[in-house]
Hints:
Elements: E1 7-16, E2 19-29, E3 34-38, H1 45-52, E4 60-65, H2 74-77, E5 81-84, H3 96-105, H4 113-119, H5 135-147, E6 153-157, H6 165-180, E7 184-188, H7 192-198, E8 201-206, E9 209-214, H8 216-220, E10 225-232, H9 240-248, E11 253-258, E12 261-267, H10 270-282, E13 287-293, H11 297-305
Amino acid sequence: xxxxxxxxxxxxxxxxxxxxxxxxxxxxxxPHTITAVLGPNGAGKTTTLETCEGYRRPQQGTVRVLxxxxxxxxxxxxxxxxxxxxxxxxxxxAKPAEMLHHFARLHAHPLPVDLLMERxxxxxxxGTTYRRLSGGQAQRLGLAMALIGxxxxxxxxxxTAGMDPAIRRTxxxxxxxxxxxxxxxxxxxxxxxxxxxLADRVxxxxxxxxxxxxxxxxxxxxxxxxTIRLVVTQPFPAGAPEDLAxxxxxxxxxxxxxxxxxxxxxxxxxxxxAVVAAWCEKHSILPESLSLGQRNLEDVFLELTGREELA
Length: 311
């Protein structure tokens, strides 16, 4: 792999008629990492990745993958990358082993078909044609087809969609092993906890622009809002929750979950905890537990995009 980023997107612009799907986007993917690219529906994420994979020609800006132009130098690039599509990519009447043997013959030094079949639990559906595979089985086959050629870089689109928890964990372990072996992984996923678990770096795209970039820790630490849950040993005295709401002020939301617990959302600083502690002392309330919720990648995503759905 050449020195420099494994993927470099600089000032990319892509339009469909009068709609701008990608608006001057710039981002990089470092070698030997797992990088997650996230974005809500219509963010331009899919168009960006299809351009990196050579399926679309940049209208403005430049894209380089392993130092190569994915359109002009496609023949040189394709043997070095793997692409896992979200759906499709196999003949409807073919069986998993048939597809993998076919793909293996297209590469100079393919992985053993039986090894991939075993690792991704594809033997259980070895006799099933592609059109009859479950969603999770089709995803596993798509990942196997992307990896069969021993790529230096692999794009994986929703790799664990439709999988049960055990198989999902197996796929996570496989992606982590690829990184350890020096393979660069570009990941898109609906599961933000998956991105937080796997990714060395996260790029969040919205309305065709990069709105945040960093490690999961860099993106999730800090912030302006914390969630506090208070559980007490005896029911709250009459009027006590309302008194706490007044003490906290307008910047904090308070919800009474049941007779013994409250949830607060407010400033992520020590003053909020100090007010709660003073309120407990004032009303002779003995806390059973007091927990401060951690900000996660989903919180960051919603703060930045204001939307829950991912492309």
